[in-house]
What does this fold into?
Amino acid sequence: MGQTQSLALLGATEDDLEVATGLARRLGLPLLPTGSDPGANEQVDAVLLVRGRSLLLQQTGRAAPGPVAVEFGSGAMRHRRRSGHNELLGKAAGLGKKPHLRVLDATAGLGRDSFVLADLGCDVILCERHPVVVEMLRAGMNTVAAYGDQWLVEVLGRMRLQPGDARQLTVRNLQGLDVIYLDPMFPPRGKSAAVKKEMALFQLLVGKAGAGSDADELLLWALQQDVARVVVKRPSRAPDLAQQPPSHCISGKAVRYDVYVRRKLAS
Ligand SMILES: C[S@@+](CC[C@H](N)C(=O)[O-])C[C@H]1O[C@@H](n2cnc3c(N)ncnc32)[C@H](O)[C@@H]1O
It folds into this structure.
């Protein structure tokens, strides 16, 4: 293999080969020999590793950090439930002003904010346009049953995956929504190894320069939709998206939520 490719599929064992082959075909990516070592691979920047029901994105090379996966049942996600961050996000979305808020997360990514919102009782559509991220989300959502945890099943029951660009959603998709939530940000938000690892992988997938470059347009699109509010997550000192001043901000230490109120949230 002479040419450098950025991403390839890899089955961890022979049992994973069928799924890995199907995904490679669907995503138009090369398939590496089953069980090969991502640490020793110099042909690709990262592998999408199929291991049982899990789909892990792993950078190649000896010094690479560990893999990233969507794991809604993980300790980190459970911990997130109790963080103050959730309160801020819930407040920004208008939680408590109307039962069962219907939220479109138009930049679903690894689904953590969607999960927080669904855990707070919102019905959430997770819209994601990057096909690899979509597959990671799908795998994460499909593995939930394996945890045998009723709470998790109920939270996931309020989440629905919608692949594609949010701006291409049909009127039917958008009907009855209360809130559009955007988190297009890519500048590093923290110093922890986990955050750095995820940022590096996102940048590898979505591209440093291109990432977030159409975020302004996304906000302008969202503001034209028939919703009660649009909420945008921003690094705390970042300028307003699309130079649009929000109605108000809910500020935390590293991030703030810019809230654009369009009308009252009525039950
Ligand atoms: C910073 S990540 C979001 C992280 C997410 N909030 C979380 O909690 O995991 C941004 C994601 O939005 C996606 N994205 C950006 N613009 C989009 C659009 N117009 N439609 C759908 N997805 C979009 C990118 O592909 C990327 O996966």
